[in-house]
Amino acid sequence: MPVPVVIVEIAPPNAPPVLARTLVAACSRAVERGRCSLVTDEPDDVVPQAIAIVSWEGADELRVRIEVGIRRTERAQWLSRTMSFRAEDDPAERWKAAGLTVATLVGQVAPPAASVGQPAPSGTAPVRAAQSAARVAPEKPTAAAHAGADVSRAQFEGGLRAGPGLESGSLRLGAVAAVGYQPAHFPVQPWLCGGYAAQAAGSQYVGVAWTNVGVGASMDFAVTGQFGLRFRSELMMQRVGVTATDRAGGSSESGAAWKTGWLLGVDTVWPAGGAFAVTAGVDAWTTSGRVFVRVSDRTVGTEPIFGWAGRLGVRVRVP
Predict the structure, then answer these.
(1) Which of 132, 215, 224, 247 is the most buried (most CB within 10 A)?
(2) CA distance to 8, 32, 51, 155, per residue, from 35 (Å)
(3) How many domains does the chain have?
(4) 75 and 21 both lie in a single domain
């Protein structure tokens, strides 16, 4: 009688071999009957006792979703569990815990001992190991789909931004804020963005302020360890407001101009998959035209078409 086998599929598929073996070994020791094995280690015609999909979220691997399924006569039964870890937890211990959880879920869905090792129900042909999850329960996502976020989450970000202001060399300082959405199993994240900045240095008689609103999208990429890289793109509307004060009389006048623009940004994120993360990056943008600041028919400054700024902020994801 063949030994029952639990096929384990891991996402992302390029998991460190040592950690993958740690997970399988822990599962094999704890499973009530049979053994556990990676999908890549089994022949194509194997008939598994159960299928386990282990999906790690984020470059820091602080969250994992485990799904175990088995076919019972004409239907499939699935159980799932999500686990969270702390950054200080040893990676090997995280993977060992995931393997033990696979064994626990197998014990909850496995058929009675008398039926273990018996041929599959009538009409159920042997399946390729790499396609087992899809064949057992077509409605379940494949392991590759779990490489992104496991659940949809709202996200909020705020920070400070500093860069050149007018072409005359003044400095602008300000703040940015954004509300976004992280879809499950989809890499593009939409955002609503806003920002405000004011001229920090320049003429005491001329003040300039910038207000931005826009919509954008971002994509996250794992780099190494707990660090990630994020690319952003944003379509924006920018209001340039100017206040000028007469040196002699002390009276003041103000005016404003609206422009459209396109912003690109790149950030480092740490920790990349954490619910709370620190972001640091650079924004670069272009707008639809220059704004000339004139006082008493004299140009005292020019707001350029191109601009850039450095930024430092925090990102929070809920739940």
Answers:
(1) 132
(2) 11, 9, 12, 41
(3) 2
(4) yes
- pTM to 2 decimals? 0.56
Q: Do both 158 and 20 map to the same domain?
A: no
**Which pair of tokens denotes residue 154?**
């709202």
From 98, 131, 146, the end of a domain falls on: 146
CATH of the domain at 252: 2.40.160.20
Looking at the DSSP bridge assignments, the partners of residue 8 are 38, 52
Sheet of 35-38: strands edge to edge?
Answer: 35-38, 5-11, 50-57, 63-72, 75-84
Q: How far apart are CA 23 and CA 17, in angstroms?
A: 10
**Taking a C-beta distance cutoff of 8 angstroms, is the pair 299, 164 a contact?**
no
C-beta of residue 23 within 8 angstroms of C-beta of residue 98: yes
**Which residues sit opposite 318 in a β-bridge?**
154
Report the amino acid identity of residue 29: R
Residues 34 and 135 in one domain: yes
Secondary structure (DSSP) of 261-296:
EEEEEEEEEESTT-SEEEEEEEEEEEES--EEEEET
3-class DSSP assignment, residue 135: helix
6-42 pLDDT per residue, tens: 899 998 888 888 999 999 999 999 888 888 998 888 8
